[in-house]
Amino acid sequence: MALLVTGAEIVISHPRFYWGETGNSGTTPLFKISIPASRDTVPTGYNYVMPDQNGWSRYLHFEAAWVLVLTGLVYVSVGLLNSHFRKNVFPAPADRKWSAFAKVFAKTFRRAPPDPAESRAYNVVQRISYLVVIFILFPLVIWTGLALSPAFDSAVPAAVNLLGGRQSARTLHFFVSDLLVLFLIVHVAMIILAGFWSRMRAMTTGRIEAPSEHI
Amino acid sequence: MSNISRRKLITTGLAATAGIAGLAAASHLARRYGLIPPDGGGIYGPGETLTYAAQRILTRHSLAREFPRSMISEKPFGNEVAPPSDAFKRHQATGFSDWRLTVDGMVAHPTSFSLSDLKSLPTHNQITEVVCEEGWSYVAEWIGTPLHNVLDAVGVLPQARYVVYFSIEPDWWESIDMADATHPQTFLTMGMNDGDLPVQFGGPLRLRVPRQLGYKSVKFITHITATDNLKRFGKGLGSASPEGGYAWYAGI
């Protein structure tokens, strides 16, 4: 959340995106977001300059990034060591086919009541989404973010060169963050549909209460 | 609740104690090896300290990316600066012929350099990117003398840990540690793209620090001082940026 809000504040100081190595108010953007900027050097077409929130936003963005990276490392190492990913997150062998996906969606759209087994295990669509988020989107958002650090790039130039340059890295960082926000919105919506308090209890304690509570 | 056993409680307690002891030891080591930035206090201190310490351990000697001549931006962007002071305008009227750079502090021979003195030092050029914290960037060729030539000429004392540099414009000053000050790409820049450095880009004299964001590359430099203690300058946070809410270390 901290990363999202501060990231948005930083975008407001220059709501234009470019492709390649360089880009600035004098060059043609790939696209721009139609909002007033917090700098009067940005040609936005609005006669209004937003308040500058970049200082604390940047401090908090990087501190929160450290929290994300450190807790993420613990989570992934523990998950690999105790086989949580292998047992609960990788799709079960029987589910590794398209019809398994179709079944989950069909059931959801028919609004069929969940059977008790479903509150104990993730279905195949959930599993694939979680895998994409944990092993693709989060590593990508960290990589594209690190590529925006001039000192890190001096030590590992490939980090930014492989992405097609600094401005490409910034644009990709923006899009990957958007995908993570999309996941968050769908995830929270699903939790609310499934019963907010019972899911929150299950997530925090890892225990599932008697099925009677679901009805 | 009943499921939390005594053993679990003891293990958790031990782990927490070990964690706190580890943090205390890490902070002691960080202080000793100069890995804590001057704005390392407050709620954002832990994040800043982790960033600065990680960069100092991993990237002390690495070189900023340099680009081929073909990648020099056709439209570099000179960020806006406050209207020039009368002092600056007087220098501008005389073609900067009386511009001086005073170097003092923890040095053996405090010296005042003219621009031609600086030009007589070994000159280098680099094609590097200016990266603004707002998100934009451009590539240009920068011509000048590496700061370490000037520091060698005045004989910086070994106990100096930071170099503080001031613009002719009031309240515009920054500082860098010795790793960045003696870095071969940290330039006292006097030329840009084969010409004199335009005023818009910091002429006649700008300190370029290409491994950090643009705001560390202060324009219109007149004074450099070497020190072992940043607490003596301004509010003691290292430079004008943290006083305005921005991080002192801008290598991220």
Strand order of the largest sheet of chain A: 1-2
The number of domains of chain B: 1
Structural class of chain B: alpha+beta
- From the N-terminal CA to the C-terminal CA of chain B, the straight-line distance is 44 Å
Oligomeric state, counting identical vs distinct chains: heterodimer
Shape of chain A: elongated
Number of helices of chain A: 8
Q: Name the chain pair whose interface involves the most residues.
A: A-B, 41 and 41 residues
Q: Which CATH top level class of chain B fits?
A: Alpha Beta
Spatial order of the strands in the main sheet of chain B? 2-1-10-5-6
For the biggest sheet of chain B, the summary is:
5 strands, mixed
What fraction of residues of chain A sit in β-strands? Answer: under 5%
Name the shape of chain B in a single word. Answer: elongated
Task: Give a written overview of the molecule.
Chain A has 215 residues and is mainly α. Chain A has 2 domains: 1-66, no CATH class; 83-215, no CATH class. Helices cover 61% and strands 2% of the residues of chain A. Chain A has 8 helices and 2 strands, in the order H-E-E-H-H-H-H-H-H-H. Chain A has a two-stranded antiparallel sheet with strand order 1-2. The mean pLDDT of chain A is 91. With 252 residues, chain B is of the alpha+beta class. Chain B has one domain (65-243): Oxidoreductase, molybdopterin-binding domain (Sulfite Oxidase, Chain A, domain 2, Alpha-Beta Complex). Chain B has a 5-stranded mixed sheet. In chain B, strands 3, 4, 7, 8 and 9 form a 5-stranded antiparallel sheet that branches. The interface between A and B is large, with 41 and 41 residues.
